[in-house]
Design a protein that fits this description.
Layout (H helix, E strand, L loop, with lengths): L6 H35 L4 H22 L10 H25 L5 H7 L3 H12 L6 H19 L6 H27 L6 H29 L8 H24 L2 H23 L5 H25 L24
């Protein structure tokens, strides 16, 4: 019998929880940092900010993989890269662009409430692509989450339709991207770690972001006399974005994607509280009640996945879908 205070068990638990708290801290930190730069600091250019992140990740990954060769590359064939990786890079560029743009219109707290729809979107897209198993039980669970988000949206004080549409489009593109990633890893048999992922994906993402940057932001930034850009501040922001990607891999590698899903709901509540505290974002009681309903739906969804992962026998018609990576806390491909 394992002793209750077994030092080895306590050490393993401490390490596991340190990974969880590291990811929660970095994920929340990057979101709040981006919100500050885009809305309060004086840099309302989401595409440019995202390009800084992707350019920084591209340079670091190239140094690690090609220059110093600390991590071997997969020597991916050009055909595989063009057919499989480039579409993922395009969708990731759109996700980051739209996701950061939403911070110009909506509060962090409300965006986190809308992100509760991520499992719904992944489930629907995955069902169409064949990576998810469609069941009535899971669909019912998704309906509960959707109703909760609708109630939260109805109670939102600062409801801006453009921001909501942009955020929902970001969620849909992210779901499609994750489905393509799952297909790439499972059906193509590729093994990608964070650095090889950044090495292949980040330059493609940077190139796709250059298009909307040239169309929407370049001239505006040139003429913006009030533009503020502190090199140290933006370098720190890019380093945090890079660290978040590495923390995601560390958490999944040492625990599981399910652990991150469960930790994600804790992070959402933390961000809602921090948004109210740091940015004085108003949150109505109706919004909190709606999000609580969606939150319980997501918790049950994660519980079903944990049951499935643990090998608990359930009725086939109620079998939960396969575990997939949800939201921006999953490997940022």
């Amino acid at each position: 019998m394992v002793k209750l205070m077994d030092p080895e068990l306590l050490q393993q638990a401490a390490i596991t929880y340190s990974y969880v708290f590291l990811w929660i801290g970095l994920s929340a930190g990057v979101i709040l940092f981006n919100k500050y730069l885009l809305s309060d600091y004086g840099f309302p250019y989401p595409v440019a900010l995202t390009m800084i992140h992707m350019g920084f990740c591209s340079v670091v990954a190239a140094l690690v993989v090609r220059v110093f060769k600390w991590i071997p590359s997969n020597n991916m064939e050009v055909e595989v890269y063009m057919r499989s990786v480039v579409p993922i890079g395009f969708l990731y560029a759109v996700v980051l662009w739209l996701g950061n743009t939403a911070y110009l219109y909506l509060s962090v707290s409300f965006i986190q409430m809308l992100k509760a729809l991520s499992p719904v979107s992944v489930f629907l897209v995955g069902s169409l692509a064949g990576t998810e198993i469609f069941t009535v039980a899971t669909l019912s669970n998704m309906i509960v989450v959707t109703v909760g988000v609708l109630i939260a949206s109805y109670g939102e004080i600062n409801f801006v339709i453009i921001g909501v549409v942009v955020q929902l489009a970001s969620i849909l593109c992210e779901s499609t991207r994750l489905t393509l990633v799952q297909i790439l890893l499972q059906r193509k048999g590729l093994k990608l770690n964070p650095f090889t992922t950044m090495y292949y994906i980040s330059p493609a993402c940077f190139a796709f972001l250059a298009i909307p940057f040239a169309i929407f932001e370049y001239e505006q930034m040139k003429q913006d006399s009030s533009l503020k850009f502190d090199l140290g501040l933006f370098t720190l922001n890019a380093c945090m974005a890079l660290a978040l990607n590495l923390a995601v891999f560390l958490l999944i590698g040492k625990t599981s994607a399910l652990s991150m899903n469960v930790a994600g709901v804790v992070k959402d509540w933390l961000l809602i509280g921090l948004s109210v505290w740091l940015f004085s974002a108003p949150v109505s009681s109706l919004s909190l009640e709606g999000y609580l309903l969606a939150f319980l739906g997501v918790c049950y969804y994660n519980y079903s996945k944990i049951q499935n992962a643990a090998g608990v026998k359930v009725d086939p018609k109620d079998a939960p879908s396969k575990d997939v990576l949800l939201e921006e806390g999953r490997p940022k491909l």
